[in-house]
Amino acid sequence: MAIERWVRITVGIVLAATAVFLLYRLRFALITITLAAMLAYALLPLVDWIGRLRLAGRPVPRVGAVAFAYVLVIAVIAGVFVIATGPVSAEFQRFVQNMGQYEVQFGTLVANARASLDRDVPPSVRKQLDDALNGAGMLFVNALGRVAQAAGRWLSHVVEVILIPILAFYFLVDLPTLKQELLEFLPSRVRASTLEAARLADRIVAGYVRGQLILMAISGIVVWIGLAVIGLRFPLLLGMVAGLTRAIPVVGPVFGAIPIVGLALLQSPGTAVTVLVFFVVLQLVESKFILPQVIGHELNLHAATILLALLVGDALFGLMGMFLAAPAAAFLKEMRTLAEERVVAPGDTPAG
């Protein structure tokens, strides 16, 4: 019995390692399919609404509803782009023109901080603070480098990027047919459980994607308005940064706030403190009031669990893995609960 148990454990480890290896090798294909599915989830309510409209007394065909939804979304994005290009471009140009000034200010700030440390802090503590500052600087530089590398990798996969909206189009048009065809690949004994798992994934991913898009929009607009009221330079550009980084759960708002607070510090220490307090209040309001209402309890995960999932997602799939880690972890948790219920159910005694 002991030998059989160890054989099963060994086989399980080998299969798990093989699955992880395959996931890593197919990561770009899997991420492309997942992003296409998420785009489809985001557009599904609009497609369903258009499909309920009637033309000449007949409902709009599914393919027509999807095509019109694409045209409408593209038109909205193009309109926003045309409206926002002027202000954002102007702010970006001013930011680039001031880069030399910011470098001088940052160097002066670091020099003053080190002079203060040399004057007021004991040598043993000073060394630890120097190491911490150097380490923080290296982490920041490495983070920027990883973001640039991730962008470069995706730019090198132009075909996959183009395939995302094309796959989403087919998902929206032929979802029932695709579901039936995929089920036919599976043995009949597992089709019911597969459908149940698909329903769980549908609920989790749909709620997560739509919720994240709403949170990104709210974060970008609120940060833009807040920074403009505070008087920080480039509020629209920085609001876009805050909105985009909000896509990553838990740590995304922190990633977005750090460079904004740093830029405020170059403007004045008082402005930096005000901006920091603004982000703390925004995070508290979002986590306590907005987040439960927008995403609800679809994920049902502790923050520590999400952080662990983010680390695993980053290790396997990079920046996109961090975005997809939270719903994947929530799905695995729901699947474990479902499996436990199926194990317990046969032992239950029917009432009466």
What are the SSEs and their pairings?
Blueprint: H1 2-25, H2 27-51, E1 54-55, E2 58-59, H3 62-97, H4 99-120, H5 123-155, H6 158-173, H7 175-184, H8 191-230, H9 235-245, H10 252-267, H11 269-294, H12 303-317, H13 319-344
Antiparallel strand pairs: 1-2
List keywords for this structure.
352 residues, mainly alpha
Structure, explained:
With 352 residues, the protein is mostly helical. The protein has two domains: 26-185, no CATH class; 186-340, no CATH class. The protein is built from 13 helices and two strands; from the N terminus they run ααββααααααααααα. The chain has helices at residues 2-25, 27-51, 62-97, 99-120, 123-155, 158-173, 175-184, 191-230, 235-245, 252-267, 269-294, 303-317, 319-344; strands at residues 54-55, 58-59. It has a two-stranded antiparallel ribbon. Strand 1 (54-55) and strand 2 (58-59) form a beta hairpin. Helix 2 (27-51) crosses helix 3 (62-97) and helix 12 packs across helix 13.
Radius of gyration: 25 Å
Helices, by number, come to 13
Summarize model confidence as the mean pLDDT: 78
Parts with pLDDT < 50 across at least 5 consecutive residues: none
Shape: globular
Q: How many domains? A: 2
How far apart lie the N and C ends?
Answer: 38 Å
Structural class by secondary-structure content: mainly alpha
What strand line-up does the widest sheet have? 1-2
Give the strand tally.
2
Largest sheet: 2 strands, antiparallel
Which bin fits the share of residues in helices?
Answer: over 70%
